[in-house]
Amino acid sequence: MRKIVLLMAIAASMAVAACNTVEGAGKDVSAAGHAVSNTAEDAKH
């Protein structure tokens, strides 16, 4: 029983960490997209 609870706790913590990692990667990709858009706008003028 203790092993099952321990494994569930480990799995839950890994799932939360994965969500934070994906969110951070999404923010990085979004920032890169904004930088490209801004550079393209500057090049037009």
Overview of the structural elements:
The protein has 45 residues and is mainly alpha-helical. Helix content is 96%, strand content 0%. The longest helix has 43 residues. It starts with a helix and ends with a helix.
Low-confidence stretches: none
Strand content: under 5%
Major sheet characteristics: none
Q: How many E strands?
A: 0
Taken from the alpha-carbon principal axes, the silhouette is: rod-shaped
Instruction: Please report the number of helical segments.
Output: 1
Which radius of gyration do the C-alpha atoms yield?
Answer: 20 Å
Structural class of the secondary elements? mainly alpha
Question: Residue-averaged pLDDT, rounded?
Answer: 82
**Termini separation:** 67 Å
SSE pattern, N- to C-terminal? H
Helix content: over 70%
Entry keywords:
45 residues; 1 helix
Please summarize what this structure is.
Helices cover 96% and strands 0% of the residues. It is built from 1 helix and no strands. The radius of gyration is 20 Å and the shape is rod-shaped.
Helix and strand topology:
Layout lengths: L1 H43 L1
